[in-house]
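For consistency, the fold was encoded as tokens, as this record shows:
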Amino acid sequence: MRIDLKEKNHFLTVFETFFNQSIDRPINGISIDSRNIKKNDLFIAIKGENFDGNDFVDQALQNGASYTLSSNKNESTYHLLVEDLNIFIKELSISWLQSFDGKIVGITGSNGKTTTKDLIAHLLQSKFKVEKTLGNYNTSISVPLSIFSFSLDSEIYVLELGANKVGDIQYLSSIVKPDYGVITSIAAAHLDGLGSIENIEKEKKSILYHSTKEYNFNELKPNSLAINFKEHKSNIFIKNLEIASHVANDIFKDFNFHDLNGDLLINCLESFKMPPGRGEILSLNKVKIIDDSYNANPESVRAALDHLSCFEEYRKFFVFGDMKELGDDEENFHTEVGQYAVEKADILFTVGKLAKNAQSNSNNFALSLHFNDNFSLLEKLNELLTDGDIVLIKGSRSMQLDQLINELKNVK
């Protein structure tokens, strides 16, 4: 990840307060990847599960970094040492935000975070200068870096807060202190790191302890929309839109603007583009693809299957890849998906060791096949697809099912 600094002077002022030395070199951007360093970047050496950024400090300087930063010592004159990197980034972010006079919307949840974040930002842009976290930059590192890339004269920041382990949401929300704290849903996801659904609920709800206005849409029903959709829309997208409209209209009221409803809402949504891999419907000649390949957990898969079942006039394919990070019950979760897919899909294709468990009900489909790799699945899919078919593609990001989407685009 790399960001450009819009507020270079302000960042340097805040940055210098943490060190007993002058920062003489300019800092134009920040990167945590030595491979995409640009001249006068600050390289933050993060230690991850599979890599250690400290191994690339020298390379970052050679590639043009003005400074490097980590909690490990380095002999370079331009290496800055901090005792605890997480505490440093937190304190730096809090200091930076003290000069921001606008409002912050913080969004978390097991499903729909990115789409809801994009929808809220899109709706608010009709009245305000808005900035948002890009893509799914929702971690303890990427949220602060995203904030540093924003302008101080913006009126609203819309931030997505994610959690892979206990304490992540507490940490992030204690930094950003949302004026509007939003929970989209609470469901089984990231159980490897969070342990139980009880921990997930506790983790998600921690955003509310730091928020001025609280919206827990796992318990609160969002305001219904004043518009009807003529085309097929998934229930999960409609819920995301209801949440976004509910929160945006509350913000409009706080600023004495009229609600965004009816024709105004329709006009605003005409220019909205779904985030990649999150339920966008692609028309490839006379075949439709529901691209839900970005990620998966049991709740989001069931919602996607409900959406698929709405296309009654089509022959329905369900391409299902492993759902990751589901803990000890991972096999049962996959078996249950196979059971849920009965009568919602005509043809079931699975790929991955875990997804194979969905094949336990294979006799209930017109055709049910398991594949060891994406290439073999794609080959069979291309062989069988014909006009009037629709394909739902759903699985965790590590299954790389987006490759299937790209290949289908090239073929059809």
